[in-house]
Write a structure and sequence with these properties.
The protein is α+β, with helices and mostly antiparallel strands and 349 residues long. The protein has 3 domains: 85 residues, Rossmann fold, CATH 3.40.50; 58 residues, 2-Layer Sandwich (Dna Ligase, domain 1); 170 residues, 2-Layer Sandwich (D-amino Acid Aminotransferase, Chain A, domain 1). It has 10 helices and 17 strands. The strands form 3 sheets. Strands 9, 10, 11, 12, 13, 14, 15, 16 and 17 form a 9-stranded antiparallel beta sheet that branches. Helix 1 packs across helix 9 and helix 3 runs antiparallel to helix 4. The structure holds adenosine-5'-diphosphate (ADP) and magnesium ion (MG). The site of magnesium ion has 2 residues, from loops.
Length: 349
């Protein structure tokens, strides 16, 4: 077979791990990113620096690759769509267009008769006056949010005045769910009813940032099956190709809700690198490059700990790891508060 050059848009830790998985499959990875310090430069075969609207740079990128994928959803639709006229872009830019916009995403999920939190669009401050039934809630920007960025908890309408919110942006307000637990389900879809799905992963957030993930998730059989069924339904309906993650809430009454969809590999799936025969990253590459699908096999239970900010330091100073512990340093240049710097996966019995 002739050599595959895979283009990846985005150069963060997910891009790094996709590059590593590509290398294992003998596929060259070429990363396009707007960040001169993008950590994936340390892992990919070639790196192109450019903005997501810089057409000559993007053309240079397109000319070097056979297939294009991406590691994050906040890429302008017009950019992905233009690229897709010249080379295949997977997942489809129209799928990303729905998922990158919280309102379109929630409308889509509800149309499938799958439960989400209650929500409403907020275009201007006064829209909130009639939405008291959604309080306490969280006001979220419809686009560009991640790791809790662009989110404002609102207990009462009057909280808005103290928050200094920029209403030139679009928002949604979501009713706060009384959380018992959060889980995620990762699926890699290769074509019609042709997929591999990982078991639900239990996630713990601190300050709206993922801190721990573990398998098995401590959930009822009903939640275990329902979360997988909903994930399959979402992936099939989108005719998705590649790895996708659905984040769920479970409330105190054991109701399951879709929180959000990530049209990409996901932080909660880092443990799949060590706990399964095929990781979410390798599966993504296999799907977008039309390689063979390998039956998924779980090798071990596992727990993943995100190293945020200076929590990376002791590990960089050569902490002695046990045989069942795996440390990943994302090689980000600067340690910043709330920045995901690396992670540790521990395989457990
Ligand atoms: P992000 O894009 O930043 O991941 P999320 O919508 O997933 O945004 O929110 C991040 C975290 O904040 C969630 O995983 C959850 O812990 C908390 N959160 C967000 N929305 C709600 C909600 N409606 N009810 C309860 N907790 C929420
Ligand atoms: Mg989230």
């Amino acid at each position: 077979m002739s050599e595959i050059n895979l283009g990846i848009i985005g150069g963060g830790q997910l891009g790094s791990m996709l590059s590593m998985a590509a290398k294992k499959l003998n596929i060259k990875s070429i990363i396009y990113c707007d960040d001169i310090n993008a950590p994936a430069q340390n892992f990919c075969d070639e790196f192109i620096l450019g903005n997501y609207n810089e057409s000559d740079k993007i053309l240079e990128f397109i000319n070097k690759v056979n297939i294009i994928t991406y590691e994050f959803e906040n890429i302008p639709y017009t950019t992905l769509n233009e690229i897709s006229k010249k080379k295949p872009v997977l997942p489809d830019p129209n799928v990303n267009k729905i998922i990158q916009h919280r309102l379109a995403e929630k409308n889509f999920v509800n149309k499938l008769s799958i439960r989400t939190t209650q929500y409403s669009s907020v275009e201007k401050k006064s829209d909130l006056d009639s939405l008291e039934s959604l309080l306490p809630g969280i006001l979220k920007t419809t686009t560009m949010g991640y790791d809790g960025k662009g989110q404002y908890p609102i207990k009462e309408i009057k909280d808005i005045d103290t928050l200094n919110i920029d209403f030139s942006k679009e928002y949604i307000i979501e009713k706060l769910v009384s959380l018992k637990k959060e889980i995620s389900v990762i699926i890699t879809r290769f074509g019609d009813n042709n997929y591999e799905i990982y078991e639900p992963i239990e996630n713990t957030h601190e300050e709206q940032i993922l801190k721990y993930s573990k398998i098995p998730a401590d959930v009822s059989e009903k939640i275990f099956n329902q979360s997988k069924d909903w994930t399959i339904k979402i992936a099939e309906e989108l005719k998705y190709i590649g790895t996708l993650c659905v984040e769920f809430f479970i409330d105190k009454n054991e109701n399951l809700y879709v929180n959000e969809i990530a049209p990409r590999v996901h932080n909660s799936g880092h443990l799949t690198i060590n706990a399964f025969n095929v990781s979410q990253f390798e599966n993504h590459i296999r799907a977008v490059c039309s390689l063979k699908k390998i039956p998924l096999k779980k090798l071990s239970n596992a727990k993943m700990i995100n190293l945020i900010g200076n929590q990376i330091e002791p590990y960089r100073q050569n902490i002695k790891l046990k045989d069942n512990e795996f440390f990943f340093d994302y090689l980000k240049k600067e340690i910043k508060d709330k920045r995901k710097m690396g992670h540790v996966t521990i395989l457990i019995k």
